Amino acid sequence: MPDRSLLLRWATDTWRCFEAMADPESGLPTDAIDVDLDPATRSGYTSPTNIGGLLWCTVAARDLGLVGADEATDRTTRLLGTLARMEVHDESGMFFNWYDDRTGALLHRMPGGGDPIHPFLSSVDNGWLAAGLMVAAAAEPRVRDAAHLVLDRMHFGVFHDAGAGPEGVGGRLTGGFWVEDPGQPTRRAS
Q1: Is the Cβ–Cβ distance between 92 and 154 less than 8 Å?
Q2: How far apart are CA 126 and CA 88, in angstroms?
Q3: Which of 122, 109, 88 minimizes the C-alpha distance to 45?
Q4: CA 81, 27, 141 angle in degrees (round to 5)?
Q5: What is the Cβ-side half-sphere exposure of residue 23, based on CA atoms within 13 angstroms?
Q6: What sign does the CA torsion over 173, 88, 82, 103 have?
Q7: Residue 5 contacts by C-beta under 8 Å, 6 or more apart in sequence?
Q8: By CB distance 3.0 to 4.6 Å, which of 103, 128, 146, 152 could disulfide with 52?
Q9: What Cα–Cα distance (Å) separates residue 69 from each residue in 7, 117, 141, 159, 178?
């Protein structure tokens, strides 16, 4: 097991990375950034997993004294405000896989190359986001209501496939599904 100083160094480096990855206006973290952490190298897109990671990392950084309590609350409040305005799947309140990390707009083409994006809802990505929302709500009373505003509209039952899985088990959770129209599911993936 690494000693406390090594673990603190890893936590500090992780927090520095998330600080550089987060857009100062939207609060959203980017999916990728160059090793020198130059904000100009942000990828231009984010996912529910990235957002969930930033939420629990902010709580950990606050608890380790890497960021002040008020700054952590301000960052989380900004991020939750952006999340509350982002387009989600109408039926479930679930988040799609790729959004613009500056505005929170749902992406239909990848930044840079312009490859088309087929909107996908991932049970795993939304699970990481839900975990981050639960951590933030439990750790900071000042953001609890804002975190629950987003979390409480997420309905994971949309990922349940009653016809899948071994005989007699009653279905299983699917990995996600693509949507033609963000309001309606069309194809399931496992």
Answers
A1: yes
A2: 11
A3: 109
A4: 55
A5: 24
A6: positive
A7: none
A8: 128
A9: 21, 38, 12, 36, 39
pLDDT per residue as tens digits for the range 48-104:
999 999 999 999 999 999 999 999 999 999 999 999 999 999 989 999 999 999 999
Phi first, then psi, for residue 31 (nearest 5°) are -80, -30
**Of 52-61, 107-116, 174-183, where does mean pLDDT reach its minimum?**
174-183
In terms of pTM, does the model score above 0.70?
A: yes
Phi-psi region of 180 (alpha: psi -120 to 50; beta: other; left: phi over 0): alpha
Angstrom distances, CA of residue 83 to CA of 134, 150, 165 = 14, 7, 33
SS3 readout for the chain: CCCHHHHHHHHHHHHHHHHHHECCCCCCECCCCCCCCCHHHCCCEECHHHHHHHHHHHHHHHHCCCCCHHHHHHHHHHHHHHHHHCCECCCCCCEECCEECCCCCECCECCCCCCECCCEEEHHHHHHHHHHHHHHHHHCHHHHHHHHHHHCCCCHHHHEECCCCCCCCCCEECCEEECCECCECCEEEC
